[in-house]
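hey can u check if this looks right to u? its 183 residues, i copy pasted from the old doc so theres a chance i mangled smth
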Amino acid sequence: MTDPASPSVKIRMLKKTDDRSRFCCGNIELDRFFQRFAGQNQFRHYIGTSYVASIDDQIAGFVTVSSGEITADELRKSTKKRLPNYPLPILRISRLAVDLKFQGLGLGKQLLKTAFKLALEMKCSYGCVGIVVDAKTEVVKYYQSLGFIPLEMVAGQLGDRPEPVTMFLSISVLSKSVSAKSE
């Protein structure tokens, strides 16, 4: 039974017709990306796909994902010893944000679950060894609680901005987690 006071959340792929102009999560870079570039990346360049959480036809949050690759050398010894040493397919969580008006409702978790499902589908369809995210320092502990492990950064210093922490969640850890929750 659903609580009539709680809003009905729908998670779906971004549409060309979605109004992204009013989205405001409190981070100007995430707002700008979603308002100006998410549509271009998805519909013109085909370099990422955004999934939106909508409440009453208003966009309340989004997660943008893309495919990518990682080599076994970039992973911890325990993980890399089981993998071949050539580029391996991953799902990358590029951006994740929730509008200020809807923060605290668990939408970020729901959007992450969507990304996790996509990684599991990718694993079965054409291969995926895990998920990579560049986590802002304030959410590193949260991602660690989900099983993500920090990766050592090889190159690409930002200079004047805080460095994100590149983190990896193996598909085997994700699969075990999903299996344990469904039991």
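Strands lie at 9-13, 49-55, 58-70, 88-98, 130-135, 149-150, 165-170.
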